[in-house]
Design brief:
Number of domains: 2
Shape: globular
Helix content: 25-40%
Bound molecules: NADP nicotinamide-adenine-dinucleotide phosphate
CATH architecture of the largest domain: Alpha-Beta Complex
CATH superfamily of the largest domain: Medium-chain alcohol dehydrogenases, catalytic domain
Distance between the termini: 10 Å
CATH topology of the largest domain: Quinone Oxidoreductase, Chain A, domain 1
Strand content: 25-35%
Mean pLDDT: 97
Length: 309
């Protein structure tokens, strides 16, 4: 099958022919229609993930997938060929990915694509959407509470802004001036903080005693923590927890995306209902993924989707 791979540690993404995988017991093979880029993929290409996860090369890149069930392994129940499904590849050692024409995943990791949701959107929803939902659940904002989201224009942040606003929070979200600022306003951020300017002054003008909670998706975690009111919550998807926060008077919550199908299906239903938007800014064909990585690394906003098959 055709796939975008990293051939060895630190190797750049390239199109290659690799063996088509088969579904083993309890597994499902999905014919992939769509996927999307995530920061995780950049970390794999750069070799950074090798310090955290074992790799089995060639590694097919891409964490997200959406497509149709193509082959059922022994013992799989509840799915049939042709079912529309989506999810996130959790393959350890790292080997399989969504940037290939087929991907094999455990059946219990599969979420169903609801009627009314196209596969391009489903393929851009998985990892970023789940991460956004998990991190907003972690800070659990009450109506009227101020929440500062740092790194808000990316795939995770653009969904997190909407989920926090839907809970009634007053959302402050960082962006560079321009496209990202316009996107965040459209998605419901109450205040867009120009992260190239005086961030401390801008936040103090809105929340003089500090914000009640902050979501850390990029940038300096300590500078962000200093903008939180005493006793406030700080949730990071970048592994910053209480040990790193030291004596600061904040509740530090390190978070990893909850990728359970129930949560993914709930998010998908929210998208169908029009309550959450997955802001796909551009769609690439599979062979264009190396260019997509370059665009992502150069600073894209929202999600970059990939049409695989
Ligand atoms: N632990 C988990 O389970 C998990 C799951 C998913 C994602 N993540 C991590 O969460 C992070 C966000 O993911 P993503 O896919 O949304 O990434 P992304 O699309 O690259 O978005 C990150 C955003 O941060 C902003 N940014 C960059 N440098 C910044 C800085 N110094 N200060 C403030 N903002 C800055 C950029 O927007 P502007 O330039 O417009 O400000 C960028 O759009 C990534 O690091 C990813 O690896 C973790």
């Amino acid at each position: 099958m055709r796939a975008i791979i990293s051939a060895e540690l630190g190797a750049a993404a390239k199109l290659a022919d690799v063996p088509t995988p088969s579904a083993g017991p309890g597994e499902v093979r999905v014919k992939v229609a769509a996927s999307s880029l995530n920061g995780f993929d950049i970390a794999v290409i750069s070799g950074y993930m090798a310090t955290l996860l074992e790799h089995r090369f060639p590694v097919v890149l891409g964490r997200d997938f959406a497509g149709t069930v193509d082959q059922l392994g022994d013992g799989v129940e509840g799915f049939a060929a042709g079912d529309a499904v989506f999810g996130v590849v959790l393959d350890y050692p790292l080997h399989a990915g969504g940037f290939g024409e087929y991907v094999v995943v455990p059946s219990e990791s599969l979420a169903r694509v609801p009627g009314g949701l196209d596969l391009t959107t489903a393929g851009a929803l998985g990892l970023a959407g789940a991460a956004a939902a998990t991190v907003v659940d972690a800070i659990a904002p009450s109506p009227g509470e101020t929440v500062l989201i740092m790194g808000a224009t990316g795939g995770v942040g653009s969904v997190a802004v909407q989920l926090a606003a839907a809970r009634g929070a007053v959302v402050l979200a960082t962006a560079e001036p321009g496209e990202g600022t316009r996107l965040l306003r459209r998605l419901g951020a109450h205040y867009v903080i120009d992260r190239t300017g005086d961030v401390i002054g801008q936040v103090a003008a809105i929340a003089p005693g500090g914000v009640k909670a902050a979501v850390h998706l990029a940038g300096d975690p300590y500078a962000l923590a200093d903008l939180i009111a005493p006793g406030g919550r700080f949730a990071s998807l970048l592994g910053i927890g209480p040990d790193q926060m030291g004596v600061r008077d904040v509740v530090a919550l390190p978070v990893n995306a909850d990728l359970a199908p129930a949560g993914l299906e709930h998010l998908a239903a929210e998208v169908v209902a029009g309550r959450v938007e997955v802001p796909v800014q551009r769609i690439y064909h599979l062979e264009e993924v190396p260019q997509a990585f370059a665009d992502f690394a150069a600073g894209s906003v929202g999600k970059l989707a990939v049409h695989v098959g």
